[in-house]
Design brief:
Length: about 140
């Protein structure tokens, strides 16, 4: 059901400093910041040969990243994202096995313009998992 690893998301207290670390210190290619108010985050993507790193900064009151950073002031890994070819079919299959989908269960459009869902970390060995629908290659 799951495909390749799409990205690992890291919450950062300061996006500009996070970008500088990856771009200037590690020499990575980093995208321009993208505000996603519906998700409460501003994101950038660090492009690697085999996947991406998503840096997340809180955007607005009540951001889930703000809450994460309250518990982890220096930042840290927030979630991992796997690709699926049909997000609704994946949701239905996983829900039937007892896994909980966060929110209202309906996919929302993510940073790549594709539908995404999140699975409850308590059902995924303590890890928040994002599923992103991508077209089959």
């Amino acid at each position: 059901m799951i495909g390749r690893l799409n990205h690992v998301a890291i919450a950062v207290p300061n996006l500009e400093a996070g970008v500088a670390r990856y771009r200037d210190t590690l020499g990575a290619q980093v995208s321009a910041p993208q505000a996603l108010p519906e998700h409460g985050v501003t994101v950038v993507f660090v492009t690697l040969p085999n996947t991406k790193i998503e840096l997340l900064e809180a955007l607005g009151e009540g951001s889930p990243i703000g809450k994460f950073l309250e518990r982890n002031p220096e930042g840290g890994i927030h979630h991992i994202c796997y690709e699926v070819s049909d997000i609704r079919a994946a949701r239905d299959t996983l829900s039937a096995t007892g896994l909980r989908v966060l929110g209202d269960g309906e996919p929302k459009i993510g940073a790549h313009g594709n539908p995404v869902l999140f699975l409850h970390p308590k059902d995924m060995n303590g890890t928040l998992v994002e599923l992103e629908e991508v077209a089959a290659a």
